[in-house]
Amino acid sequence: MSSRDPTKLAPSTPYKPSSTSHRTSLTANPSTPQSRFSTSAFSSPGGGIGGASSLHQVDEPLIFEIGTRFFRAGFSNESAPRCKIGITPELYGRVGLKGRGGTHANRRTGEPAGPRIRNTGSEEWELWMNDLRLKDLGVVEDLMERVLREAYNKHLLIESKSKRLIIIIPPVFPLAIQTTLSQLLFLHFQPPTITYLSSPVLSCLAAGLRSALIVDIGWQETTITPVYELRPLPAYIKFSSRGSKSLVEVFGQLLWNTIKPAGDDESWWRIFSWGEVEDLQSRYGWCKSSAEAREAARQRARKAFGLPVDKEADEEFNEDGERIRKTSADIRAQRRREAIESTEVEMVFKTPLLNERTTNMALPFEAMSVAAEYAFFLPSWTNVENFTKEDGYIPTPNVDELMEGCQGRVEYEDESDYTLPYLVFLALLHCPVDVRAVCIPRIVITGGAANMPGLKARILGDLKELVEERGGWNIVKKRNAKGDERRRELVEKKPKKVEVEMLQSEKDDLRIKYAKIGGVAPGTIRGVETMGAWVGGSILSGARIKGAVEIERERFLSTHRM
């Protein structure tokens, strides 16, 4: 019989039968087992309840991230959350009901208008709001309890009493919501401790940095937070009301202006569903580059003054009349523009309040970038047009506005309505010099709307142009830069040629040094990718560092204070 008879081989599993395991352990020589059971946290979770619980130790915490629209939950030392639960109108009512039901009738069909109509129709798609005057804390507590029970019972599959909690919250979080959440967790789920961490710090940590400028484009607002040595600087945080919600609102308004009858003043959110509009915007929306947006603004300015619109010539000539040869980058950019202009998007959507009527539309692909222009880059007083406007998707400005200058008009606007690049510039400008020097080459753009194609590059490109236009980071803006420079030349002593050459050689040596080590020269505006705040919390919890502020269950239930 062959020595490799399969009947004589050892079993493939690392565990031997119970009848022979004790006897073989006494007689056989000690040897290394063929395989071992891995308890690594990065292993794929096993099926069933035992698979999820056996992979994690008792002292490893759970990571929760609470946002306005989504709730994420998962285990420590993992690269992604186990679940992402969205807030929908179905969570507000009983099982099987859509929303809380409506009492208002639509004036077109006479049917119920779906969820209860309030300010903008988005309240039943949000877990909480910054303005708590329009939100019932009891309803918020019930929603949180339903979301937490779904996360524990369907996704985490683990006992809630044995795990510490790390909860990631925005830098400015309503204290009433935080107290309600703590009371809910300690009473119904009974974790031993809860640690609250700020999302900008964890986003910075997930990017592999200790200091950065975190631009978080959230649902309700955009928050710009400087982080220095893993410490947020609350005194220099900037806020903007332009967020993902503004983007969805503009997209829905553009869509409704395209199909509505003439003279109809109905609001778009009474006709469309927020979920439908958000899905269309996430699938079709994109953002123009800085050069394309600058050229479009120049053409609108020419049209405002009654000048003919420039058409790009096939051949360009220099001052001597010689033909300028286009580079490969120019050819690729021209082909890209031609492809964008000739491409159409087939859009299919339903209008729930118009007898579920299905509408098919073929819109230009270029029009899908207009929503980002209105939401993030155009002044707040710009009127929203539609997707099929013949003269352009963005209205032509008045001559008076152009003569005043956009920058002068913006400075009189409320800070929450500033465009995103200008607000990022102000955040860096108001920071101390040492913090600004560290944050300029480390700008992290995160959030839900940050995944839109072209948005990150557009913000950084407009920021570079704004810095070059203002001539640096001086807080006092010069009105006559050329005249000041001329007077300085007359007063100051002109340096010698040798000194100028020495300074230039030192700058060249510095550039060569940074090029060799692969670093970025100081003052270079650069964006850095991040894996998200939840991953940062997972990394921090894996380091087993005790939080500076931990809320214990017994102490909170006795004092009811944070």
Q: Mind explaining what this structure looks like?
A:
Residues 1-48, 98-118 are annotated as: Disordered. The chain is α/β, with parallel strands linked by helices and 562 residues long. Among the domains are: 52-87 and 126-202 and 533-559, 2-Layer Sandwich (Nucleotidyltransferase, domain 5), CATH 3.30.420.40; 244-418, no CATH class. It has 19 helices and 16 strands. The chain has a six-stranded mixed beta sheet with strand order 3-2-1-4-5-16, sandwiched between helices. Helix 3 (137-156) crosses helix 4. The longest helix has 21 residues, at 497-517.
Structural class: alpha/beta
Mean pLDDT: 76
Q: How many whole angstroms does the radius of gyration measure? A: 30 Å
Q: How would a textbook summarize the main sheet?
A: 6 strands, mixed
Give me the count of strands: 16
Low-pLDDT segments, ≥5 res: 1-54, 97-118
Largest sheet: spatial strand order: 3-2-1-4-5-16
- How far apart are the termini? 76 Å
| Count of individual helical segments | 19
Q: Give the oligomeric state.
A: single chain
Query: What share of residues is helical?
Result: 25-40%
Strand content: 5-15%
Shape: globular
Protein name: Actin-like ATPase domain-containing protein
Family: Belongs to the actin family.
Biased composition (Polar residues): 15-39
Region (Disordered): 1-48, 98-118
Please give the structural blueprint.
Blueprint lengths: L17 H10 L20 H7 L7 E5 L3 E6 L7 E4 L50 H20 L8 E5 L5 H15 L3 E6 H8 L5 E6 L4 E7 L2 E2 L5 E3 L3 H16 L14 H11 L5 H15 L11 E2 L5 E2 L3 H15 L1 E8 L5 E8 L5 H8 L21 H6 L1 H6 L8 H11 L2 H7 L3 E5 L7 H16 L10 H11 L5 H21 L9 E2 L4 H10 L7 E3 H7 L3
Parallel strand pairs: 1-4, 4-5, 6-14, 14-15
Antiparallel strand pairs: 1-2, 2-3, 5-16, 6-7, 7-8, 7-9, 10-11, 12-13
Helix pairs in contact: 3-4, 5-18, 6-7, 6-10, 13-15
